[in-house]
Design a protein that fits this description.
The protein has 230 residues and is of the alpha+beta class. Helices cover 16% and strands 44% of the residues. The protein is built from 3 helices and 15 strands. It is globular.
Length: 230
């Protein structure tokens, strides 16, 4: 029995990793309605301090009551190269926010890696002012200390972006977040490693590493030696 327990502990120590999706920039402050005007791109710069794997794009649904219209969300390099884009609708996957005043609607992308550096997130809002206001971007989160919640390896945004345009485009105008309302409508998902139980050995299961086999063999040999002395 003791030998079996020791083997269980050894196997448990060889834990694999899977991935879970985490919103890159979230917040835990009440969301208020804010829209500069209809026909705008709103967003912000997002800076990574480590390589991250992108798994989806998102849009914040204030009050969790659905979108008045669909919104195209994009991720760019600073040189305006478009890396990924998705259209968020009411049929998109729901993901909880750190804020109790809304939720995220998410569309998956084929996973790809982002190197450390600064990128741009943006979403297009509204051909109609009333509709644009109904799906307003979120503020004033940047004016409240501790209100921003970021994934590991992601810095708090300090540069917001805007562009007046009737179509989806790179948001070219920049301004400092500390002087204005937060424009955190668009979002991004990153894959983060989490601990998961290992697959059982045998057909289809992972083959234990040599060091693990040696340790298990030592445990078995020790158990057999004790049994023989008795």
């Amino acid at each position: 029995m003791r030998t079996a327990c020791l083997i269980t502990l050894v196997v448990a120590a060889t834990v694999g990793a899977a991935s879970a999706d985490t919103i890159g920039v979230d917040f835990n402050h009440p969301a208020s309605s804010f829209s500069k005007s209809s026909n705008t791109m709103n967003g912000y710069n997002i800076t990574l301090t480590e390589t991250k794997t992108v798994t989806g794009l998102a849009l914040f649904d204030k009050d969790s009551n659905g979108l008045a219209q669909s919104h195209q969300v994009g991720l760019w390099k600073l040189d305006q190269t478009l890396l990924a884009t998705k259209t968020i609708t009411n049929a998109s996957t729901v993901k909880a926010s750190a804020s109790l005043f809304g939720r995220w609607l998410v569309e998956s992308v084929t996973p790809f890696d982002l190197d450390p550096g600064t990128y741009v997130l943006g979403a297009h809002y509204g051909f109609n002012f009333v509709v644009a206001l109904a799906d307003a971007v979120v503020g004033p989160v940047t004016l409240n200390p501790g209100s921003i919640v970021t994934a590991p390896g992601v810095n708090n945004p300090t540069i917001l972006r805007h562009k007046s345009t009737p179509v989806f485009a790179f948001p070219t105008t920049t301004f400092f977040a500390s002087f204005t309302l937060g424009q955190f409508g668009p979002g991004i998902l990153f894959a983060d490693p989490v601990v998961t139980p290992p697959s059982p050995p045998g057909p289809g299961g992972p083959v234990p590493e040599p060091a693990t086999l040696l340790l298990i063999g030592s445990v078995l040999a020790g158990g057999a030696w004790r049994a023989k002395r008795r």
